[in-house]
Amino acid sequence: MEFGTKGKKLSYQQKQAIDKLHLPGLGYLKGSKRYYPGQSEAAYTIGFTQTNPNNDRKTGVFGVEQSLNKYLSEQDGTVRFYTSSGGVPIPDEEKHMTATHPGDNVYLTLDSRIQTVMDEAMTKVEQDYKPKQMIGIVADPKTGQILALESSPDFNPNKGNIKNFQ
User: Fold this and answer.
1) Is residue 49 a contact partner of residue 65, using CB atoms and an 8 Å limit?
2) Cα(43)–Cα(151) distance, integer angstroms
3) Of 29, 99, 100, 106, nearest to 60 (Cα)?
4) pLDDT in tens, 88-145
5) Which of 78, 79, 107, 158 makes the best surface tag, with the fewest CB within 10 Å?
6) Which of 154, 62, 145, 157 is nearest to 108 (CA)?
7) pLDDT tens digit sequence for 14-40
């Protein structure tokens, strides 16, 4: 039995509820998820991921997630060896192994305190003047580091609700 798309992306609470039913022969496949703790902060810069239907992996499709996807994505490992016609590994044959790679971390120069002030200022401007779009950038003039970056309208990459995405 297969649940198809209804059985994908279950929350932990849904999994627990299913487990309480004690259904025989039921198993789960773990997947990965990227979580964005800043919610909509710098969402257009950070970007988002979507599940690739070919391999069920998250793939960056926008922003830093897309441009650095090859570094952020995990890599499966492999083991290759010779077997007999019955599928039994042949002793003393060399195994070719490729190690797994969990994916790298990326650290941006954004400062959460400055980002919060930027968000509050942009919210006030939006309420007072109702512009169609806004962009705010705070950079360190000495280093060029981007300390805050915001655009409006925004979206929350955790929820996938993208407004005016083009």
Assistant:
1) yes
2) 8
3) 106
4) 877 776 778 888 888 899 899 999 999 999 999 999 999 999 999 999 999 999 999 9
5) 107
6) 145
7) 889 988 998 888 887 776 677 778 788
Integer Cα distance of 7 and 87 in angstroms: 33
What string of H, E and C letters represents the secondary structure of 35-99? CCCCCCCCHHHHCEEEEECCCCEEEEEEHHHHHCHHHHCCECCEEECCECCCCCECCCCCCEEEC
CA–CA gap between residue 97 and residue 20 (Å, rounded): 39
Model confidence, pTM: 0.65
User: Residues near 44 by Cβ (< 8 Å), separated by ≥ 6?
Assistant: 62, 63, 151, 154, 155
| Residue 89 identity (one-letter amino acid) | P
Q: Checking phi first, is residue 60 left (phi over 0); if not, alpha (psi -120 to 50) or beta?
A: beta
Rounded to whole angstroms, the Cα distance separating 65 from 58 reads: 10
Place of tokens 């990227």: 34
- Tokens for 136, please give them: 């705010």
